Amino acid sequence: MDPIETPQIAPLIQSQIQQQMENSNLTLDNYLLDSAYDEMFAGREALHAHYELLMEHFSSLPKDDLTRKKQAADLSFLNQGITFTVYGREEGTERIFPYDMLPRIITAKEWETVERGLTQRITALNLFLKDIYNEGRILSEGIVPRELVYSCKQFRRHMVGLQVPRNIYIAVVGTDLIRLENGEFVVLEDNLRVPSGVSYMLTNRRVMKRIFPQLFRSYGVRPIEQYTQLLLGTLRSLAPEGRPEPNIVLLSPGVFNSAYFEHAYLARQMGIELVEGRDLVTHDNVVYMRTTSGLRRVDVIYRRVDDDFIDPLIFRADSMLGVAGLFNAYRAGNVTLANAFGTGVADDKALYAYVPAIIKFYLSEEPILKNVETFLCARETERKHVLANLDKMVVKAVGESGGYGMLIGPQSTAVQREEFARKIEADPRNYIAQPTISFSRAPCLVDDGFEPRHVDLRPYVLYGDKVSIVPGGLTRVALKKGSLVVNSSQGGGSKDTWVLSQ
User: Fold this and answer.
1) What does the alpha-carbon distance between residue 143 and residue 252 come to, in Å, rounded to a whole number?
2) pTM higher than 0.70 for the full model?
3) Which domains does the chain carry?
């Protein structure tokens, strides 16, 4: 929608809120509504009921109080070392993760649908991985094209016929959701290999409870602090047979990895060792950790290292991050990895288009959470459609993440579109495209007022003895006005996510 046509909030509700905000000097002058679903405003005439108390509270805060709270939050993040790494930027790689103090609120009814949909999805994707690495029924019956699976760079032939503990291939998942114009949550992406960001979810909550304790209590927000203990319980449940008190470690690429803060945070919260590849060794297909008192057996590895780098004997021979012989120990059943080798095939962006069919095939159910319409450039007719409409599409490389390898058509130049057209023609299997979606916007504190910014939601799903989902997730924010890119590596930030108990 042209900005000139973008409606402002109705004068009556704006004046009512503005009266409350008289002492805070905050304004709604730049809060313009468009066709996107607004998390706070139910059209131009009213607030969504669950945001009324929030606006009342923030509107009553003097500006000096708000400034002090913002400074306290920033200092807390700084003291905790809550950072992320941006690669390829000349101005420096280490940054404090941007944080917006206005929480994103989700009602109990909305969350119930999200929770059921995520449980359904992880169950079906686990069955899919078990099937393609064993019987291959879904391939034989033509539900998912065999060539699409076998051409995926994340398909690991070494995993064919290998049994994994409890048949759980994906124990930890971060699923990216967006909300459409009608308010419906849909799945934008599945992150099954090494999903990150959960530490920001947890630290956002800790800071929010500290700086707005009364508001937090008034809302009856469901807790998320149990996540690390749920994760620990999930990892324990996947231990090899005969190891009732398993030794669990978190395997990190090291301090230069973009998510190293998270690796250290989670290991500390779970009370397990944080290790790098050089800390582990294998003997007779058993993994051991080097300690000052000698070698200690390792039973479960929560790995934050990609397949390609995890075992130089099987995958990339030049990797300095992995453990030689780890795959053989895994194949022998002497150590469990979460997530399993080869799970990346199920979060390939081209395979994403088949998840609704995967759910129907294994569960005989309709998807509770729908997909975004997706065009596979590997299909000639769909490729022609994409190339003819690049200015309207979002194009993604199937193996990229973090906002990299992506073209946002409406915000691109002719030169960029020509470059992507050449890439698509050269390697169509490597690209998919989706319509540009103006997903939901939530209020953010910007300078002296409230402004809407686009947000997504990444809930975290655990799968061990059962499926566990903490009520909330990481709400990521496109802090740049008009931007649709929420990734921290591309200038995005985050919010606390409040799921209401009733």
Assistant:
1) 37
2) yes
3) 3-107+441-499 (no CATH), 123-172+219-363 (3.40.50.11290), 373-435 (3.30.1490.270)
